[in-house]
Amino acid sequence: xxxAEELLAFQxxxxxxxxxREVQFAKPRRWRADFILxxxxxxxxxxxxxxxxxxxxxxxxxxxxxxxxAGFRAxxxxxxxxxxxxxxVLRFLPEHVESGVALATIEQALR
Length: 111
Hints:
The protein is α+β, with helices and mostly antiparallel strands. Helix content is 40%, strand content 21%. It has helices at residues 3-14, 69-84, 94-99, 101-110, and strands at residues 20-24, 32-38, 51-56, 88-92.
């Protein structure tokens, strides 16, 4: 787990948002989501789509996997599969987690 993922987990716990980490979401594929939030049936969930897959993409400016051609292609396939499986996908950079933007966006999405 990256430092940004650990920080986001801490932030989510601090505001009482339940989540699961490193969940395999598209069997038989071995794709895992950094975080999955399932708020179906939650009293504060007014959205038709209440399942969220959250990814924290590290290395965006340091030649990380997410910015290589093959890595970008794999991300497209993975996130399209998540969307087709009924997840709303939210992606963040570590800087979004550190600044609080990721948490604010997640809270807004859950309204």
